[in-house]
Design goal:
By secondary structure, the chain is mainly alpha-helical. It has two domains: about 15-165; about 180-404, no CATH class. The protein is built from nine helices and no strands. The chain has helices at about 5-10, 20-65, 85-100, 110-210, 215-260, 265-310, 310-340, 345-375, 380-404. Helix 2 crosses helix 3 (about 85-100), helix 2 packs antiparallel against helix 4 (about 110-210) and helix 4 (about 110-210) packs parallel to helix 8 (about 345-375). The longest helix has about 100 residues, at about 110-210. The radius of gyration is 51 Å and the shape is rod-shaped. This is KfrA N-terminal DNA-binding domain-containing protein. Keywords: Coiled coil, Plasmid.
Length: about 400
C-alpha cells in the first residue's frame, strides 16, 4: 500500500499564497527611486564638473591670449594640464575663439555691469540648482523612508505567514499519523481476508483430496466441496473489493492532498473518520464477544452431539447448513463492500463493516470447524480425514450387516 509521507504532502500541497507582490513592488519602487537619485546626482555632478572645466579652460585661454599668444597658436596641448579629452579641449578652443575674441584676435571686453549681471545670474542658477537638488533629494529620501516602513510591515506579514505555515505543517503531521493508523487497519483487514481465503482453500483441498467410498454420502460430500469452492470464490471477490477500496482510499488521500488549503474541512473529515472508526471498533468488540459466546455454545453442542452419537449423514447435513449460513454471511459482506463510497470516511465505515462481517465469517468458520470436529475431524489433514471416513464406512457396514 502506498503511503503518503509528509515530504510528499509538503511537496504536492497548495499552501496559502503570501502576498509578496506588494513587497516586491515596494522593493522595486525603492530601487527605482534610489537609482533615480543616483542618476540625478551623477548628472548634476557631470554638469557641475563640465561647467567648472569650461570656466578653467576659458580662464587659461584668456591668460594665454593676454600674454601674446595668437589665436592660431592656441592648441589642445595648452589645456592638457587641466585634463579632459583631446577633442573636448579642441572644441573649447574653437568656441573660445568664436565667442570671446574679435576679428583682430583680441579679447572682447565686457562692461562691469555685464560682468555683475552675469555673476548674479550664475549665482541664481547655482542657487536654483541647489534648491532643486535639495528638494529632489528630500522627497526621494522621504519616499525611501516610506518604502522602508512598508518593507518592515511586509517582513512582519511574511513572518506571521511563516508562523502560520509552521503550525499548519504540525497539524499535517498529526493528520498523517492518523492516516497511518487507518492504513494499518486496512492492512490488517487485508491480512484477515487472506487468512480466511487460505482457510477455505485448505478446506477445499482437504475435501478434494479424499475420495468418499460411501455411495450414499458421496453426493453430499461433493455438494459440500462445491459450496466451499463457491465461498473461496466469494472470498476472492471480497479480496478484490478490498483492493478496490484501497485504491479508492488512495484516491481519497489525493483528494485530501488537494483540499489541504481548507484545513477546517480536513479536520472535520478526519474527526468524523476517527469517530466512525472508534464506533465501529466498539461494535466489532461487542459482536466478537457475542460470537465468542456463540462459539462456546457450539462447542457445548458438539460435545452433546458426540455424546448422542449422531450419524454421519446428520453431521454432514449440519455442515451443509453451516456452509449455507456462511454463504449468506459472505454475500452480506460482499453487498456491504460493493455499496462503499470513494470518500475516506465512507471507506473506513465500509472497512469496519467488512471487518464485522469477517468476524461473523470467522465465527461461522469456527462453527464449521466444530462441525468438522463432529464429523471425526473431517477438515483435518488428508490422512486423518481418510482414516475417519474409513471408520465411518466400517461403522455403516456394521450397521447394515446388523440391520440385514
Amino acid at each position: 500500500m502506498n503511503k503518503l509521507s509528509l515530504d510528499d504532502i509538503k511537496a504536492n500541497r497548495s499552501t496559502d499564497t503570501i502576498p509578496t507582490d506588494s513587497v516586491q513592488r515596494s522593493l522595486a519602487s525603492s530601487t527605482d527611486a534610489q537609482q533615480k537619485i543616483e542618476q540625478e546626482q551623477k548628472r548634476d555632478s557631470v554638469n557641475k564638473n563640465q561647467k567648472v572645466g569650461e570656466f578653467l579652460y576659458i580662464k587659461k585661454l584668456t591668460a594665454l591670449v593676454a600674454s601674446g599668444v595668437s589665436p592660431d597658436q592656441l592648441k589642445p596641448k595648452h589645456l592638457e594640464e587641466l585634463g579632459g579629452h583631446f577633442n573636448r579641449r579642441k572644441q573649447i578652443i574653437e568656441e573660445f575663439v568664436d565667442k570671446y575674441l574679435d576679428e583682430d584676435g583680441k579679447i572682447i571686453q565686457v562692461g562691469s555691469e555685464w560682468n555683475e549681471a552675469i555673476g548674479e545670474i550664475m549665482t541664481l542658477i547655482t542657487s536654483l540648482q541647489t534648491k532643486v537638488i535639495t528638494a529632489s533629494r528630500t522627497a526621494a529620501h522621504s519616499r525611501v523612508d516610506s518604502l522602508k516602513s512598508r518593507l518592515v510591515e511586509a517582513n512582519e506579514l511574511i513572518a506571521n505567514y511563516k508562523s502560520s505555515d509552521l503550525a499548519q505543517n504540525e497539524r499535517i503531521q498529526d493528520l498523517e499519523s492518523m492516516l497511518c493508523t487507518k492504513e494499518e487497519l486496512v492492512a490488517n483487514l487485508t491480512e484477515d481476508l487472506q487468512i480466511k481465503s487460505e482457510d477455505l482453500e485448505s478446506v477445499e483441498n482437504d475435501l478434494k483430496g479424499n475420495k468418499v467410498e460411501l455411495a450414499g454420502e458421496k453426493k453430499v460430500t461433493e455438494m459440500l466441496s462445491k459450496q466451499i469452492q463457491s465461498q473461496a470464490e466469494d472470498i476472492d471477490v471480497l479480496q478484490a473489493k478490498v483492493e478496490k477500496l484501497q485504491d479508492e482510499k488512495e484516491g481519497a488521500l489525493v483528494e485530501l492532498n488537494e483540499e489541504r488549503n481548507s484545513g477546517a474541512l480536513v479536520t472535520q473529515k478526519l474527526e468524523a473518520l476517527e469517530k466512525s472508526s472508534v464506533e465501529q471498533g466498539d461494535k466489532y468488540r461487542v459482536d466478537m464477544q457475542g460470537k465468542q459466546s456463540e462459539i462456546e455454545s457450539l462447542h457445548q453442542k458438539v460435545s452433546d452431539l458426540n455424546d448422542s452419537q449422531l450419524s454421519l449423514n446428520e453431521k454432514l447435513s449440519q455442515a451443509n447448513m453451516s456452509i449455507t449460513s456462511l454463504t449468506e454471511q459472505l454475500a452480506g459482506a460482499k453487498g456491504s463492500l460493493e455499496s462503499s463510497e470513494g470518500k475516506v470516511e465512507v471507506l473506513q465505515a465500509s472497512i469496519a463493516d467488512a471487518h464485522v462481517k469477517l468476524g461473523v465469517s470467522e465465527a461461522e468458520l469456527g462453527r464449521l470447524r466444530g462441525v468438522e470436529e463432529e464429523m471425526q475431524n473431517l477438515r483435518a489433514s488428508n490422512a486423518r480425514l481418510a482414516l475417519q471416513l474409513e471408520q465411518a464406512s466400517a461403522a455403516l457396514d456394521v450397521k447394515k450387516s446388523s440391520s440385514s
